[in-house]
Design a protein that fits this description.
Layout (H helix, E strand, L loop, with lengths): L1 H21 L1 H7 L4 H4 L1 H24 L1 H20 L4 H30 L4 H30 L1 H22 L13 H26 L8 H23 L13 H31 L4 H7 L2 H20 L2 H21 L5 H31 L6 H27 L5 H23 L6
């Protein structure tokens, strides 16, 4: 029952992420904006979740994972409807950011509920089945959402998925049971605020740097970039100072000295850099060079989440048989091959190119599905039982940092009206990120 409920809970988020990504150009035209501006409908959402996810996970540890899940689903339903009613680019971006506030409550607490149900000895298995739901549900959603978009427009897609989110809210309210939480402990607000500020300003600075690089008439390192770097460094230093002095810190700094806490997150972030960065430039590759429509591109993308979903249970099972390191390494190698497949498709325009793209999509899904259960379980196993929600939140925060970095970097490298050479070189950057993921995976402590 819990797995079925989570299947519903993540359908709207995952499906809309893919559908909005592949339809940015059409949404921009309808709202009288540009594709570059509408990219903030994705980037703004991810920035919000990057900042708030560990805080939401910590709140789940303190006040109950069920409570935070229900709040996230209720708020998410309302804000999805608001997105469908958006009247211009700014309102849609704002509503997507607001949706991100509630979506941040769903994932870490839903995963914590799954881990509690499976027990501490089978955390990788729990992550595998969670990923199965988190990626399988959007696969079904895309099957319906792509044709729906072509037939009735982008607003109809938001309204349909708002109804799905409402069903998940009703089910969670009725069926999900509470888990033990830490009575009497309060959220470390100064620590949460300083960490959030560091992540937000750091990612905004990266985005500004990417914008400067995209526009030829701008200075690459301007005043906003310099100021952003300074503020980010100060916020990090303040966070460290606060956590060292706090009697109940939001995040114990000694966790970062544990190899199996830090390295899996590094590997996962590099994996997400390639996974999402490669995805966002494959859509314009298909649109600009192959001449495909939004609906057709959305359907062609199905092997990516489909393979991710189907391989996730395997990723949850393998650590019990071959340990944690090898599945992470296998996933990184598969991601390297995926980026090379996309690069091979870039000079082509016919069926052979589509075959290479499909191969790349399958490999990216397999890479993420096989590697992430082990990476997430390793991080959670490295913290105290009371910090499971926080560890899940940190995993997802670092993953979002990798996503934003990948999306911004690879979008900048491709640019507008990209040549074949630009696509090829950008996919090689994604392959380099996957190599970093492999190195981090192999550096995990032996015997795990």
């Amino acid at each position: 029952m819990l797995l079925a409920l989570l299947f519903l809970a993540v359908t709207a988020f995952g499906s809309l992420m893919t559908l909005v990504t592949v339809s940015l150009g059409d949404i921009a035209d309808d709202l009288g904006s540009s594709r570059a501006t509408m990219t903030w409908a994705i980037t703004g959402l991810m920035l919000t979740m990057a900042v708030l996810t560990p805080i939401a996970g910590t709140l789940g540890d303190l006040y109950g994972h069920r409570r935070l899940l229900v709040i996230g689903l209720a708020g998410g339903t309302v804000t999805i409807v608001m997105c469908g009613l958006a009247w211009n680019a700014a309102s849609l971006i704002g509503f997507r950011v607001l949706f991100g506030c509630f979506a941040a409550c769903v994932n870490p607490n839903a995963l914590a509920l799954m881990m509690h149900a499976y027990g501490s000895e089978r955390r990788a298995t729990a992550v595998g089945w969670f990923q199965f739901a988190a990626t399988g549900a959007p696969t079904i959603g895309i099957l319906a959402g792509g044709p729906l978009f072509d037939a009735f427009g982008w607003r109809s897609v938001f309204f349909v998925f708002a109804a799905v989110s409402a069903l998940a809210f009703a089910g969670a309210l009725r069926s999900v049971r509470s888990t033990p939480h830490q009575a009497g402990r309060r959220l470390d607000l100064p620590g949460a605020a300083s960490l959030g500020a560091a992540v937000l300003v750091g990612l905004l600075t990266l985005t500004q740097f990417a914008t400067n690089a995209r526009e030829a008439d701008r200075t690459l390192v301007d005043v906003p970039v310099i100021a952003g770097v300074v503020v980010t460094v100060v916020a990090i230093a303040l966070f460290i100072r606060i956590e060292r002095r706090s009697s109940a810190p939001m995040l114990r700094l000694d966790y970062f000295a544990r190899r199996n806490f830090t390295l899996p997150m590094v590997s996962g972030a590099a994996m997400q850099f390639a996974y999402m960065g490669g995805f966002v430039i494959t859509a314009p590759l298909l649109e600009d060079r192959y001449g495909w429509t939004v609906g057709a591109i959305a359907l062609l993308m199905l092997p990516r989440p489909g393979t991710f979903s189907l391989s996730s249970p395997l990723g949850g099972w393998l650590p019990q048989r071959i340990g944690m390191r090898l599945p992470m390494a296998i996933g990184a190698v598969a991601m390297i091959l995926a980026m090379l497949s996309f690069a091979a498709a870039s000079p082509l325009t016919g069926p052979p190119g589509i075959a290479w793209i499909v191969a790349g999509l399958v490999l990216t899904g397999f890479a993420a599905g096989v590697s992430q259960p082990a990476a997430i379980a390793l991080t959670v196993d490295s913290v105290d039982p009371a910090d499971v929600g926080l560890a899940n939140g940190m995993n997802q925060q670092v993953a979002f940092i990798g996503i934003v970095a990948g999306v911004q970097t690879m979008n900048v490298l491709v640019g507008d009206n990209a040549t074949v050479g630009q696509f090829v070189s950008t996919y090689f950057v994604g392959a380099t990120a996957a190599v970093i993921s492999l190195i981090a995976a192999l550096a995990v402590r032996r015997g795990t």
